Amino acid sequence: MSTAKHVTRFRVRYSEVDRMGAAYNSRALEWFEAARVELLRAVGLAYDWMEQQGAHLPVVEAHLEYLSRAGFDDELEMTATASMPGKASVRFDIVVADAATGREVVRGYTLHAITDKTGKCLRPPKWLSDALAGDGP
Amino acid sequence: MSTAKHVTRFRVRYSEVDRMGAAYNSRALEWFEAARVELLRAVGLAYDWMEQQGAHLPVVEAHLEYLSRAGFDDELEMTATASMPGKASVRFDIVVADAATGREVVRGYTLHAITDKTGKCLRPPKWLSDALAGDGP
Amino acid sequence: MSTAKHVTRFRVRYSEVDRMGAAYNSRALEWFEAARVELLRAVGLAYDWMEQQGAHLPVVEAHLEYLSRAGFDDELEMTATASMPGKASVRFDIVVADAATGREVVRGYTLHAITDKTGKCLRPPKWLSDALAGDGP
Amino acid sequence: MSTAKHVTRFRVRYSEVDRMGAAYNSRALEWFEAARVELLRAVGLAYDWMEQQGAHLPVVEAHLEYLSRAGFDDELEMTATASMPGKASVRFDIVVADAATGREVVRGYTLHAITDKTGKCLRPPKWLSDALAGDGP
Predict the structure, then answer these.
(1) What residue segments make up the domains of chain D, in order of their start?
(2) Residue B87: what pLDDT?
(3) Does domain C4-130 have CATH number 3.10.129.10?
(4) How far is it, in rounded angstroms, from Cα A111 to Cα A122?
């Protein structure tokens, strides 16, 4: 099974750093979201367009392992891959590492249902599987 | 002109504190919102009910003066007063102080338009002026 | 093995709600932190006091299952239990439910190392195991 | 008096958007901070380096005018200028506009004291005035 993959860079904001001088743990879930949005954009799926098609991807599960500290203004690199386990959900695996040294900061995944606006599960649209598979014709 | 007034207490969360050990500046605007919601509830105006009536109160201006630091787990007391300057907008003045010592932490105001769902200005509903005036019959 | 347990209530803030009208996923990790702080306070361990003793509890792993939506102003009830798996780390299991209906919103855990200020692992202090065990004399 | 000026671009994150579909008001203060950090970096003043010199710039006042809504994934452009009113404080004026249309979203300023680590006011360091004045020899 092939998967879509995307890399994003950003700097840790002062507002994201806690009293210990390290990025606060919940911020990783905001970064993961930014990684998902950029990966989807890269395979041609603007999030707004998807919602206009009536397809939503609410998070149903998240898992995070905090491996080392990231401080204010550190430049981080996120590598995201997307897959469709069981064909009925979407999973994003994400690794955030220090851009300068490669040291891993946090890794984890989010698992998403595919639903309509009201939260009812949908059969996965073909355009979604096609885009995430990255399969050419 | 009489005004509605309300007092709320809360503790500073670890996630709200920055590298200097003090509550991060943008958090004050989240606290102000909590103060507004509780003041409105106290005068009988649940925010959801107001939106169901078609009345929204988007922030059009905010001003903050940071007077002293609040650290993690400090108990703070917010005093909010509401008024309707010029009758066409709502203003909340808020003072946040240390609950134990009375030392002021931040003070300021937010000014709100009264609009429909699309952002178009509304004539202020009578139930809003009545509730905020605190005038009994 | 006995465990410490604590229940906290709070309301979902407007600032925590996303475009879908539901509390944004990363906010659950901020709530979990508030639950930990209150549980520790309830067993006599103020977080500041612990840090003054030189003991820190950085999050090394987090897991979350999102079970239903929580909207603005919903009153939620968090039940937190603490345990010390393998005696060298602390785990908080947390369930967040709608206070009115009992419907579960999110559940999960955070796993914490016990370290000094620099992040070096410590032998768990006796006061910590005693407080979390909840064992009386 | 000449002033330093800098332009930054970014996209609105899903986590920053509220139930009305617009960026939540407190987020503007986080954006302002990112604009300050980038302006200072552009004139040769890394924030960490400044703190190592013993100079801190805590926010003492903030003012914001919300002019139009910014939605999820909108690309915004921030223009920041820095000045030193009265020579004893630093002021950043910031305009955030839609990058595609130029429509202004929010404008305002933050005023900063110049202090040591403990919050005591400092005489402004010459390297700070020089860098912000942008005066060549």
Answers:
(1) 4-133
(2) 79
(3) yes
(4) 15
Chain D residues within an 8 Å CB radius of C72: 19
DSSP-based three-state secondary structure for A85 = helix
Using CA atoms, how far apart are residues B42 and B131, in angstroms rounded to an integer?
10
Of A33, A72, A73, the CB nearest to D13: A33
Chain B with chain D: Cβ pairs closer than 8 A:
55
Specify the pTM. Answer: 0.93
CA distance B134 to chain A (A): 39
Fill in the DSSP letter of residue A86. Answer: G
Burial per residue of B105-123, b for 16 or more beta-carbon CB atoms within 10 angstroms, e otherwise = bbbbbbbbbbbeeeeeeee
State pLDDT tens for residues C85-128. 887 899 999 999 999 999 999 999 999 999 998 889 999 999 99
Q: Please state the ipTM of this predicted complex.
A: 0.93
Query: For C30, which residue in chain A has the nearest alpha carbon?
Result: A26
Whether domain D4-133 has CATH 3.10.129.10: the reply is yes
Distance from CA of A2 to the nearest CA of C (A): 27
Q: Which residues of A71-91 are buried (b: 16+ CB within 10 A; e: fewer)?
A: ebebebbbbbbbbbeeeebbb
Q: How distant is the alpha carbon of residue D97 from its chain centre?
A: 14
Distance CA B105, CA C77 (A): 29
Sole residue written with tokens 């604009």 = D35
Contact A62, C24 (CB under 8 A): no
Q: How many CB atoms lie within 10 A of CB A51?
A: 15
Top residue of D20, D25, D109, D111 to mutate, by most chain B CBs within 10 Å, is D25
Residues C84, C82: Cα–Cα separation, whole Å: 7
**Chain B contact probe: residue of C24, C32, C37 with most B CBs at under 10 A:** C37
Beta bridge partners of A5: A81
For B18-46, the pLDDT digits (tens) are: 988 899 999 999 999 999 999 999 999 99
Q: How far is D59 from chain B (nearest CA, A)?
A: 7
Q: Give me the numbers of helices (H) and strands (E) for chain D, helices first please.
A: 3, 5
List CB contacts (< 8 A) between C14 and chain D: 18-19, 24
Work out the percent of chain B whose per-residue pLDDT is above 90. Answer: 84
Which runs of consecutive H residues, i.e. helices, occur in C1-137? 27-42, 47-52, 126-133
CA–CA distances in Å: residue D81 to residues B38, D32, D94 = 37, 11, 7
